[in-house]
Amino acid sequence: MSSPSDLGEFELIRRFFIRDEKSRRESGVILGIGDDAALLDLPKGTDLVAAVDTIVAGRHFPEDADARSVGHRALAVNLSDIAAMGATPLWATLALTMPSVDPDWLTRFAAGFLDLADAHAVALVGGDTTRGPLSISVQILGHVPHGAALRRSGAQAGDLLAVSGTLGDAAAGLAMLKASARRAGSSCEVDELIRRFEYAEPRVRLGLSARGIASAAMDLSDGLVGDLPKLALASGLAARVSVDLLPLSAAMKAAVNPGQALDWALAGGDDYELLFAVHPERFAELKAAADRLNLMLTTIGELSVGASVTWSRNGKEFVPSVSGFDHFAQASTQITV
Predict the structure, then answer these.
(1) At how many degrees (to 10) do helices 67-84 and 103-119 cross?
(2) Which 3 state secondary structure label does DSSP give 223?
(3) How is 17-31 classified by DSSP, letter by letter?
(4) Which of 84, 131, 193, 322 could make a disulfide contact with 4, Cβ separation 3.0–4.6 Å?
(5) Structure confidence by residue, pLDDT tens digits, 217-268
């Protein structure tokens, strides 16, 4: 595969993506960047956890997005998958396709990627570069004690449904970016919502804390309307949600009209919060774990015997109007700022 630069593939990787050799050794890297493949030392008594995601310019992030936020996002979406499994992330590989080499862009991209990697003690152990339309694929590897991973299929009838953080902020932030809402004099609420889109915060530490407490978990990458049915189906259960309980941020309430805010909270995607099923008697433990991390944890419904997902609002049946919502293509920007 051809290199996208006269620098040569390894020189490009060495220049922009290699930081501290000592930190890689400490995270179980026997052989990292510079050979045909990495050699990794998996801790004894653990199961390997692997996830991979690709993000594409114009589909998963705006083509003119700040390169630092793109680098952050590329790793964050994978860390969120690891978080949902209750696993510890350790290693990542990066496949970067670019139309051309822009040193300034690469410097910012690498900073966003590696700063988040350092925050979660993740070592970049290999990758690939090639020429083409801008897209980034990241594989992340981690571990969990044998048999202890959180799964979508572990929920039981009677479990509560709970979500971390607030919902819909990233979709609101994307809409504001597309509407050029970030401008001189824009409100701090708009800036906060845009930050939530550009710099998603994977809930890795909450996922680790939830292991052994929650019955099931998954991350909310496609929005609650898109993701909850996957958990219910995997566990063979019915789910009921009261949309009145969906947690909205202060920034969302201040910047967006209530109807649009609800649509985004239901199906906006890209928040990368965690959805849990938890036995009612253990919810207090999970809430205490979230409190220690200064995170909200909100009950929004429950699971029961059956095979449907139903929604209620003000005590009446509610049908979300945003089912099938494409959060990136969506052009609606009902912003009140």
Answers:
(1) 30
(2) coil
(3) H---HHHHHHTTEEE
(4) 131
(5) 999 999 999 999 999 999 999 999 999 999 999 999 999 999 999 999 999 8
